[in-house]
């Protein structure tokens, strides 16, 4: 048996193990963001697919897709509040949310699937 043949199954095992580890990490990341959104009160006015008081997060992701300054602009909206971009109902400011949480929430909103 050559060294190459001996190594091949090892490499396959390594890839499988990496995939098994990566998958739950990715799934947990977005579950955590959803939980953060719930805990931060976002989901009393927003849902991923339906307009409630505020726009559906899927609509926000669609509107800002490909816009370079989307993260900065939406971070400002969540922190300071926003009005008249989507309608006449304003979004209140979320000044007490830690900036790292706001960034995480906005990144998650921007990744909402259509
Ligand atoms: C009291 C209801 C309410 C809550 C709570 C709320 N939102 Fe909003 N949100 C709105 C409304 C209404 C709008 C549309 C504002 C407008 O027309 O400019 C909006 C708009 C947005 C937008 C788009 C802003 C833009 O500049 O286009 C994002 C992103 C967003 N909300 C995220 C969040 C996140 C994240 C949270 C939780 C921290 C949150 N919202 C909590 C009502 C709410």
TrEMBL record:
<protein>
    <submittedName>
        <fullName>Cytochrome C</fullName>
    </submittedName>
</protein>
<dbReference type="InterPro" id="IPR009056">
    <property type="entry name" value="Cyt_c-like_dom"/>
</dbReference>
<feature type="signal peptide">
    <location>
        <begin position="1"/>
        <end position="27"/>
    </location>
</feature>
<dbReference type="Pfam" id="PF00034">
    <property type="entry name" value="Cytochrom_C"/>
</dbReference>
<keyword id="KW-0732">Signal</keyword>
<keyword id="KW-0479">Metal-binding</keyword>
<dbReference type="InterPro" id="IPR036909">
    <property type="entry name" value="Cyt_c-like_dom_sf"/>
</dbReference>
<keyword id="KW-0249">Electron transport</keyword>
<keyword id="KW-0813">Transport</keyword>
<dbReference type="InterPro" id="IPR002324">
    <property type="entry name" value="Cyt_c_ID"/>
</dbReference>
<keyword id="KW-0349">Heme</keyword>
<keyword id="KW-0408">Iron</keyword>
<feature type="domain" description="Cytochrome c">
    <location>
        <begin position="28"/>
        <end position="113"/>
    </location>
</feature>
């Amino acid at each position: 048996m050559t060294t190459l043949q001996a190594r091949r199954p090892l490499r396959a095992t390594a890839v499988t193990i990496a995939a098994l580890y990566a998958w739950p990490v990715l799934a947990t990341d977005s579950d955590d963001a959803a939980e953060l959104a719930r805990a931060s009160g976002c989901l009393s006015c927003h849902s991923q697919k339906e307009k409630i008081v505020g726009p559906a997060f899927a609509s926000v992701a669609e509107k800002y897709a490909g816009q370079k300054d989307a993260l900065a602009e939406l971070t400002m909206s969540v922190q300071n509040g926003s009005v008249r971009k989507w309608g006449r109902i304003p979004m209140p400011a979320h000044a007490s949310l830690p900036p790292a949480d706001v960034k995480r929430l906005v990144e998650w909103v921007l990744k909402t699937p259509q």
